[in-house]
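Customer escalation, tier 2.

The customer says the design service returned an amino acid string that "doesn't look like it belongs to this structure." They asked us to rerun it and document both sides in this ticket. The original structure tokens are below, unchanged.
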């Protein structure tokens, strides 16, 4: 696990983009795990810029998103399919048939079948090479709320009151936020070969401190990443503000051999 503290969200997002670009250049058909929310928006903008200005080629890339709201179809403006199309997919020349998001339009007994289908799709793609994560103010990753099994697979979850409030800004009314979602499980996320978790702002500081320096516990689902061999936390000053060892993390990054640093920092 590595912690990289950047002065602001823009520089952290540029570092994340540099890591993804390096992977896509080395493996053009890389399997990317993608996230929604406010946090990855600057990262997607930077990747779009690299596609346009530097010819970064996404035409063979395959993608799997973490989650989707149940009850929202792909055209709903708050659906994650809509979010991904408008903020990323429509601008990078990716093959739309190779972009995967759980269906929000299943219910009843079809839900477990959709979850099993999603897991099988990830498996048959050869697994996820790099998973992008945000983090909830309660430590959730994907929509794995506190208390989620650390071994969980893709399944239906019921959102906490706090997450519904946090996400109300994407809906015309707070009551419109769905109660249920499909989300990759924590076990699913842990099988990704590399993980980049991004977190910005003081509202994420407690969740980050718990995840990085606290005990491994389902009360802070992101803390399981302490057990992942290739995880980088890319945080800004605000999100780093409650870390006890922040001086050490900065010292480590500044004193790494150049080849271990993110391209652009060497
Ligand atoms: P945010 O959400 O990026 O909109 O803060 C993160 C999350 O809930 O995982």
């Amino acid at each position: 696990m590595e912690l990289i503290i950047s002065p602001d969200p823009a520089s952290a997002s540029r570092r994340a983009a540099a890591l993804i670009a390096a992977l896509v250049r080395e493996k053009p058909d890389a399997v990317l795990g993608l996230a929604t929310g406010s946090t990855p928006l600057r990262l997607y903008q930077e990747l779009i810029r690299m596609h346009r200005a530097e010819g970064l080629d996404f035409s063979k890339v395959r993608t799997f998103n973490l989650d989707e709201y149940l009850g929202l179809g792909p055209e709903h403006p708050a659906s994650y399919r809509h979010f991904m199309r408008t903020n990323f997919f429509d601008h990078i020349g990716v093959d739309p048939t190779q972009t995967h998001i759980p269906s929000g339009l299943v219910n009843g007994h079809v839900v477990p079948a959709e979850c099993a289908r999603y897991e099988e799709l990830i498996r048959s793609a050869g697994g996820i090479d790099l998973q992008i994560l945000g983090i909830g103010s309660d430590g959730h990753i994907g929509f794995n709320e506190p208390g989620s099994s650390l071994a969980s697979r893709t399944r239906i979850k019921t959102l906490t009151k706090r997450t519904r409030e946090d996400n109300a800004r994407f809906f015309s009314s707070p009551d419109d936020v769905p109660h249920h979602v499909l989300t990759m499980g924590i076990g699913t996320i842990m099988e990704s070969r590399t993980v980049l978790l991004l977190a910005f702002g003081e509202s994420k500081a407690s969740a980050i401190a718990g995840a990085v320096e606290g005990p491994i516990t389902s009360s802070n689902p992101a803390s399981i990443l302490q057990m992942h061999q290739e995880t980088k936390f890319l945080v800004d000053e605000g999100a780093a503000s409650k870390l006890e060892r922040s001086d050490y993390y900065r010292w480590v990054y500044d004193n790494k051999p150049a080849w271990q640093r993110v391209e652009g920092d060497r």
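Tier 2 assessment: The sequence is consistent with the input. The mean pLDDT is 97. The pocket of 2-phosphoglycolic acid is lined by residues 37-39, 134-136 (CB under 6 Å). Sent an explanation to the customer and offered a walkthrough call.
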